[in-house]
Amino acid sequence: MALYRKYRPASFAEVVGQEHVTEPLCNALESGRINHAYLFSGPRGCGKTSSARILARSLNCEQGPTANPCGECHSCVALAPNGPGNIDVVELDAASHGGVDDTRELRDRAFYAPAQSRYRIFIIDEAHMVTNAGFNALLKIVEEPPEHLIFVFATTEPEKVLPTIRSRTHHYPFRLLPPKTMRGLLEKICAQEDVGVDDAVYPLVIRAGGGSPRDTLSVLDQLLAGAEQNRVVYQRALSLLGATDLALIDRAVDALAAGDGAALFGAVESVIDAGHDPRRFGTDLLERFRDLIVLQVVPDAAARGVVDAPDDVMERMRDQAAQIGTATLTRYAEVMHAGLGEMRGATAPRLLLEVVCARLLLPSASDTEAALLQRIERIETRMNVSIPASESPVSAVSAASAPRPAPVAAPVAAPSAPVAESYAEAPPAPAAPSSAAGNRQFTRRSQAPQSGSAAAAEPPPAPPAPP
Asked: For the residues of 376-415, what is the DSSP string, one character each?
């Protein structure tokens, strides 16, 4: 039996990561506030249909309605995860039975009282696939159902459910599981299956599952089926899942940090030689940029479960986050994200990947805000490294604002020296000529040789009065 079926929860207490839904439902069951229609929404594989079955089991338990079904009565045994089913609990797939004729038949059957249970419950999966005509056929009975009838609609797109139907339900949104919660679930299942798993395998499985418990357990089931000697090793998981080797990701990031284009394109060559998909390499590299940005902003991201990686990989990522600035990482992520969009459906993905790598190395090739911030960040980094403390900008400003000493008079020029040289060494004149006549007069004086100290001491002529 598949893992997602074998470990399907049998009560609300066993549902993992949906406490915001299970706790209010348990309180409603214990207090007896039962509604006639429920709407469970959320991404695929996050427990909507399983929770609908648990709700039916809790409602029809002989000791219920209760949040903790006894598991021993006829209804609990029939509605167990692997039970034969109950005639009073009907599960309908709207993807293939969403037409008006199907809903009319369901409406006619719904008026009959339950055969052996407390409630007659209709679970409509993929409810957004029901046509408008089908919803209109159900509208009257959903508005005013008999006391024994309860509807549970499960859908991934609640906005497509007819508003008049949606407004008459209690809406409970389900969510994807965070990596930390998912890892705990996987470790628990592997322990129950008595299978060893390398620590680096869990992040691969969690990312492949995308936060969906059902999809994640399907990926883990595939790895367990191909395990040798009851152990899932990293290299086998890497090849089966098509993920990029972390060593290649580290090589690419280190090359970018050092500005080494040869090393970066060498990493791309190794990716192609290893048979990896260029698009997958770009996606994994983008995820690494994201992890580095988070580590810079949240130093304890690993403890919080925001970044999930083995301890040795986490240490390398901390070193990389310290080498590359936040603005640079942000631009890397933006360029790679745009490149992945261009690679979608491309006939030469390797060529586009190499073009994206060239863009990563050249911030001046783009005039975006991220490229400008990266260039400023590089300049600031170089200034902090190359300028000593005595020559820092703060010292320069302090020196400029300090009072300057009075100028010292220059020595008198020798008799044989030209006047131009004496002018160069003498203090500046009080005022410079401001007209063409003054300029010509000043030029004649500079060209005429003067002798003795009297010529050097003679002040320059005053500028002519303005007209």
From this structure: HHHHHHHHHHHS-GGGSHHHHHHHHHSPPPPPPPPPPPPT
